[in-house]
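FIELD: query
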Amino acid sequence: MRVLIGGEIRAARVDRSLTLREVCRAVGVSASTGSRVERGVLEHVDVMLLARMCAVVGLELSMRAYPGGEPIRDGAHLGLLGDFRALLHPSVDWATEVPLPITGDARAWDGFARSGAWRYGVEAETAPHDGQATLRRLALKQRDGQVDGVLLVLRDTRQALAFLRQVEGVIGSAFPVRGARALELLGVGADLGGNAIIVLPRRSGSPLA
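FIELD: result
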């Protein structure tokens, strides 16, 4: 990316008959730094420097964030996964951060439960907020993840209940197995037979959120 942007800055500069020294003087950096930016060899580039250099040569720097790899998980998230794992029968194999079986795909399951012939991807959400976006994301991961179903694990908080109200019209079709029944089957190592949303109680002393 830095090579591409640097090349575009250089091309625009040359097109406008500006010298590298003129551009660098305008943005307040040395000519050597400007040269390294244009060649894309400056390892750590300040975004504001790129934006200023673009502006001087008549370009506008545009940036956007896109969904990519999985985010770093905090203690609450790890605690939710741990509480869920504790409810599984000992015969159920458990793993965390299991990548989807597609080369180059950065997505991963928060957890992965498997026993015998069945395999379920597990997603834990401590602060769910966008019901439709979450369901679309899980549907895509189920499609691409080669699993028998998806288990969405939530903590019993106000935010989680609000989230469930958002998606109550589609829960029956997208997650047909009731949470209590899912836990009952997982507790004996049996196949759920479909997707489920499981709401676990808050830990003692934790806030309602």
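FIELD: remark
The radius of gyration is 25 Å.
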